[in-house]
Amino acid sequence: MQVNAAAAAMPPSGIREIMNAAWGRSDVLHLEVGEPDFPTPAAVVAAAHEAAMAGRTGYTPTAGIPALRSALAAKVRARNGFSVEPEQIVLGNGGAQALQASLTALTEPGDGILLPDPAWPNFAMMSALLGLESAHYPLTMAGGFVPELSDLEGLVTPKTRVLLLNSPSNPLGSVIDRDRMTRLLEFAARHELWVLSDECYDEITFDGTAVSPAALDTDGRVVTVFSFSKTYAMTGWRLGYATAPPEVAQVLAKAQEPLISCINTPTQYAGLAALESPPEVVANMVRAYRQRRDTVVGLLDEWGLPVFRPAGAFYAWVDVSAARLDARELALQLLAEEQVAVAPGTAFGRGGQGFVRLSLAASEETLAEGSVRLARLVERLAARPR
Question: What's the predicted TM-score (pTM) here?
Answer without folding.
Answer: 0.96
